[in-house]
């Protein structure tokens, strides 16, 4: 299971308690696909994309 200190890092926002529990269960179920410690993200040169935005659009 995901360690409790990792849950503390999550900024889930204003969800009802029941939805937070469901979200934590989902994150735990698929924990193997998340980079919880910021040390497993790699890179690839197999894909390139372009994001076209309108002029004067501020970043989100």
Automatic annotation (TrEMBL):
Domain Peptidase A9 residue range list: 8-52
GO biological process terms on file: proteolysis
Any GO molecular function: aspartic-type endopeptidase activity
InterPro entries in UniProt: Spumavirus_A9
Family matches, as Pfam families: Spuma_A9PTase
Record-given protein name: Peptidase A9 domain-containing protein
Organism: Rhizopus microsporus var. microsporus
């Amino acid at each position: 299971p995901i360690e409790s200190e990792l849950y503390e890092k999550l900024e889930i926002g204003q969800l009802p308690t029941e939805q937070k529990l469901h979200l934590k269960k989902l994150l735990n179920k698929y924990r193997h696909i998340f980079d919880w410690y910021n040390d497993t993200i790699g890179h690839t040169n197999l894909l390139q994309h372009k994001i076209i935005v309108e002029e004067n659009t501020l970043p989100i």
